[in-house]
Amino acid sequence: MVAATKAVSVEHVRTAVRAGVRIVGENRLQEAMPKIDVLGPCDGLEWHFIGSLQRRKVKNVLGRFRMIHSVDSLELAQEIDRRAAEAGMRQPVLLEVNIAGESTKSGFPPSTIIQAARAMDELIHMEVQGLMVVPPPAKDAESSRPYFRRVRDLAREIEKQDFRHIRMDELSMGMSQDFEIAIEEGATLIRIGTALFGSRPH
Ligand SMILES: *Cc1c(COP(=O)(O)O)cnc(C)c1O
User: How far is the CA of 191 from the centre of ligand 1 (A)?
Assistant: First the structure.
């Protein structure tokens, strides 16, 4: 479980960590940095970047986050690879899938992801470990099931390619409203905010 802590104070994050949370997911670098400075990386606490990432922020994200869930373009991937090479590291990432082709959402459409993955297979300082999805807004959790299933099938399809470096070990899918369905459909990472911390101020 990734505790999604946007708009959650460092004190509340600390309480969650004391209660057993081991992975913290932040959406914005600006908000995450002071929390990381105060809390970790202590006691094996992992920080994941789950929000949309601008290319110019990549250099500050590297080294701070164990996993970036939200690689949504080849250009972003190339920047991560370039910066990771400079830093002498390999950055684990997930590819964000725009599973319903929503124009308001970022992520790779399923129709282009294999081609993009082929290009990313050459980027040896970035390690693709799986897929991430935020399905379209839904009234009930069950409506998300077909999207989770399609993401899982897409991961299996990518696994069948002859990629050398790309792995599909992780599926980051499911939030407070629909994590149980996501787990049934193969999620390995669920991102939980409201169910842990209550609703966020708007
Ligand atoms: C906020 C957020 C979550 C958590 O959503 P909840 O519905 O509060 O559980 C998960 N993933 C991402 C990318 C988020 O921005």
Answer: 6
